[in-house]
Design a protein that fits this description.
Blueprint lengths: L2 E3 H9 L1 H9 L9 H17 L6 H15 L8 H14 L3 H9 L2 E14 L2 E16 L4 E9 L5 H5 L1 H18 L6 E9 L7 E6 L3 H20 L6 H4 L15
Parallel strand pairs: 1-3, 4-5
Antiparallel strand pairs: 2-3, 3-4, 5-6
Helix pairs in contact: 1-2, 3-4, 8-9
Length: 257
């Protein structure tokens, strides 16, 4: 069935025309870079650590990072100096992952990792909400905790932590995970886990994101609005995003002159 993910919703919210080029016309846009490769490699280690797998952390990270860089292909320029820096930064993060988990959540059991969401959307029955949740754990108080790992430089400021479009990811994950498992939303909490490349201490930081009824309603209304316009074929260019530091690959090209 036709589906929409949070990242697709984010692209539509940023610019409906960009969404059309990437998701409707299937024109290749952003292909990744050193930062996305680093994020994928670190995510891989976080998952294995959460599952208590007996691994060589450093080897898993460096091998995964190297593979991700190779997979970018020749068309993506890679800064070898930056890659070398990132290897050192990643190795510094690894020892703090388990410690930060245990300090923040204390006792817990792993419910799932990389769990797929594929849930019907109310008011748009012909569409599915699709996503992958990095991790779900359950603490001894009976609550479930959805975790999304985020790599960053030194951290997020107050605005970034509370910015609606950023936090809607966890709001929608909570809503549809609750729907999938028929679990009361009051028993579900959501958290971002920041993995900070350039921080000198506290390189792994968890913080909770709250999603009350009003915020959930706002996130769902944005989702319904996006689907209404996508199905209608409405794809107005958001010129403000062209100059807002987004770095659109189509800006001033044949696709978006």
């Amino acid at each position: 069935m036709p589906h929409i993910s949070y990242s697709e919703l984010k692209n539509w919210n940023m610019c409906p025309f960009y969404h059309k080029l990437v998701h409707i016309d299937k024109i290749d846009g952003f292909k990744g870079n050193e930062y996305t490769a680093f994020g994928t490699a670190i995510h891989n280690v976080c998952e294995k650590k959460l599952l208590k797998e007996d691994i060589d952390d450093a080897r898993v990270f460096t091998d995964s990072f190297s593979d991700c860089i190779t997979n970018l292909g020749d068309s993506v320029p890679v800064d070898s100096g930056l890659v070398d820096q990132m290897v050192g930064q990643g190795l510094a993060i690894l020892p703090e992952i388990e410690e930060a988990l245990e300090e923040y959540f204390e006792e817990f059991e792993v419910v799932s990792t990389e769990e797929r969401l594929y849930e019907p959307i109310e008011n748009a029955e012909d569409y599915i909400f699709k996503g992958y949740i990095d991790a779900v754990i359950k603490t001894k108080d009976g609550k479930y905790h959805i975790i999304d790992w985020k790599t960053c430089s030194w951290g997020w400021n107050r605005h970034r932590r509370s910015e609606p479009m950023t936090t809607y990811q966890l709001t929608l994950y909570k809503y549809y995970w609750s729907q999938k498992h028929n679990i009361d939303k009051e028993l579900i909490e959501t958290h971002f886990a920041l993995l900070k490349r350039t921080a000198k201490k506290e390189r792994v930081e968890f913080f909770r994101v709250t999603s009350g009824d009003r915020k959930t309603e706002n996130a769902l209304n944005l989702l319904y609005k996006a689907l209404h316009n996508i199905k209608k074929g409405s794809c107005i260019k958001n010129r403000l995003s062209c100059t807002a530091g987004f770095g659109c690959d189509f800006y001033k090209t044949e696709h978006c002159p």
